[in-house]
Amino acid sequence: MYGLLLIHSSYVSKPTRRQDMEKSVEDEKVDSDYNSKDSREILNYDINTSSGELTVKVICLGDTSVGKSKLLERFLINSFKPQQVSTYALTLYRYTTEIDNESVVVDFWDTAGQERFHSLHPSYYHQAHACIMVFDATRKVTYKNLTRWHDELRSYRPSIPVVCAANKIDANSEITTRAFAFTEKNNIPLYYVSASDGTNVVKLFRDAITAAVNYKKNPTDWTDQLLAELEDTDCTSTPSLSSSQKGEILTQ
Ligand SMILES: Nc1nc2c(ncn2[C@@H]2O[C@H](COP(=O)(O)OP(=O)(O)O)[C@@H](O)[C@H]2O)c(=O)[nH]1
Ligand SMILES: [Mg+2]
């Protein structure tokens, strides 16, 4: 079961100044209020829902046109429409499933073109529990760019689990015989997939969800632990603010 939530693109547009980033945190609150009235609230992924369900946030990363949206479409509605027009907004797909007999609410975050600026807003990474990195089996440059995406991801989420998908293997099956230095070096599981014909898509997403759940239950990210301690001591410092500060440096 899944639902679709569109968030105004200003929520993830690239910040240039501190004020812009603080404003986007404010926007988040406004959007959250609006959506909760609409009973489609943006969740606080660090805690469970009010009814006790586990919540996880899974983000998709990779260059434009590698097939991120089509993979989500394939997993969630088991379909593929080659010419569908992208929406001009960040897309959040809310999906409810069971992992080890436990109900889990999964929010998949997908960009809607912001990745063409080669950087995403810190709020995209904020509170993420797992990341699906995608490259296009027919375009080598999209594989090369994974390193840059991985560096940006790690600057915000140093140790969340990552899985990698070589997509469009229907258009280049030869690639499935190859190994890749990026995934081997970083110890990232690699899946040869096709959003077009569905090969390995369910496995990719199920494994990503399971990894996200395991990570949420046993976070190894020292920043998570630090932030939890700060919250315990009622410190006003928030994850968003520290991410924003980082974002200012990284995005100039
Ligand atoms: N042949 C083939 N084309 C695909 C596949 N997945 C996506 N595409 C095409 O690649 C283009 C970009 O897909 P999209 O999901 O919008 O990429 P995104 O920008 O990463 O979200 C579209 O024209 C899709 O039809 C696939 O598995 N096989
Ligand atoms: Mg897309």
Please outline what is shown here.
The chain has 252 residues and is an alpha/beta fold. The chain is built from 9 helices and 7 strands; from the N terminus they run βαβαββαβααβαβααα.
Outline the structure in words.
Helix 6 (about 180-185) links the parallel strand 6 and strand 7. The model is unreliable at about 5-40 and about 235-250 (pLDDT under 50). The chain has about 250 residues and is an alpha/beta fold. The protein contains nine helices and seven strands, in the order βαβαββαβααβαβααα. It folds into two domains: about 1-220, P-loop containing nucleotide triphosphate hydrolases (Rossmann fold), CATH 3.40.50.300; about 220-250, no CATH class. A seven-stranded mixed β-sheet has the order 1-3-4-2-5-6-7, with helices on both faces. The site of magnesium ion (MG) has 5 residues, from helix 2.
- The overall average pLDDT, rounded, is 76
Low-confidence runs (pLDDT<50, min 5 residues)?
Answer: 6-39, 234-252
Helical residue percent band:
25-40%
Task: Output the CATH homologous superfamily of the largest domain.
Answer: P-loop containing nucleotide triphosphate hydrolases
**Element string (H = helix, E = strand):** EHEHEEHEHHEHEHHH
Q: Would you tell me the structural class of the helices and strands? A: alpha/beta
The CATH architecture designation of the largest domain is 3-Layer(aba) Sandwich
Enumerate the strands of the largest sheet in spatial order, edge to edge or round the barrel. 1-3-4-2-5-6-7
**How many distinct beta strands?**
7
Could you say what the CATH topology of the largest domain is called? Rossmann fold
CATH domain class of the largest domain: Alpha Beta
**Sheet of most strands:** 7 strands, mixed
Q: Which cofactors or ions or other ligands sit in this model?
A: guanosine-5'-diphosphate, magnesium ion
Cα distance spanning the termini: 40 Å
Question: What is the molecular shape?
Answer: globular
Q: Total number of helical segments?
A: 9
| Relative strand content | 15-25%
- Domain count, please report it: 2
Radius of gyration: 18 Å
Protein name: Rab-like protein 2A
Family: Belongs to the small GTPase superfamily. Rab family.
Keywords: Nucleotide-binding
GO molecular function: GTP binding; GTPase activity
